[in-house]
Amino acid sequence: MPTVGARPSEERSPLVESALAVAIAATKAATLAFAVDAFVNADTPRLRGKAIRTRAFGYAGALLVVPVLWWLVPDRGRYPRALDLAVTIPLLLDAGGNALGLYEEAHIDDAVHVANSAIVSGVAGALFAPRVDERWQAALIGAGVSITAEAAWELAEYGAMRLGADGMDLTYDDTMADLAEGFLGAAIGALFTLTRVPRGRTARRRRGWREPLGLRNERPG
């Protein structure tokens, strides 16, 4: 018999799971290749002045966030491939955009800021959902965390520029656009929280923060 109040697991077809696995492997391999290129060729004209070696370490480290988190949590269930791919794609866009000189021309920066802000907002919303009275409060907190993180990132970029990283082409208009994109991503993440977490507080506490992120499936008991 199913556990009382449990929601059936959202099972994907083997074809979808295989496609996600291939996509993850390809995007992670490409991102890692761009990270190595960035570290080795940091002093070339296409990468100079972008604090690219620091970014390269960030790319490589961020690729491990979802696998490590999944490995650490107990009762982890199916691997959250969709979440892993969602985290990896912005890294690939950022690393590839810098490596190929397409960052400004193709407006990759815009997509990266929106995607990163949405991910932070959605994850933070899921974390707070079991601890608040209403799920809209979790969505609002998640969005606030995301916007704060975006503002901190812009301050870090400004600090890097002041310290000599003059290849990022920072301008007032660019900073304002990045902040606006951060607000948009935060709103998307808040919508994720509102649609993925249960309305009732008891159900949110029972299911916890991991289920909306795909880190645990409720199983028959």
In short:
The protein is mainly alpha-helical and 221 residues long.
**Largest sheet, described in full?**
none
Strand and helix order: HHHHHHHH
Oligomer: single chain
Percentage of residues in helical conformation:
55-70%
Quote the beta fraction: under 5%
Q: Round the mean pLDDT to the nearest integer and report it.
A: 83
- Tell me the number of helical segments per DSSP (H or I, 4 or more residues long): 8
Radius of gyration: 19 Å
Structural class: mainly alpha
Quickly list its features.
221 residues; mainly alpha; 8 helices; 0% strand; disordered N terminus
How would you portray this structure in words?
The chain is an all-alpha fold. The protein contains 8 helices and no strands. Helix 5 (108-128) packs parallel to helix 7.
Give the arrangement of secondary structure elements.
Blueprint: H1 14-40, H2 52-62, H3 65-72, H4 81-100, H5 108-128, H6 135-162, H7 172-196, H8 201-207
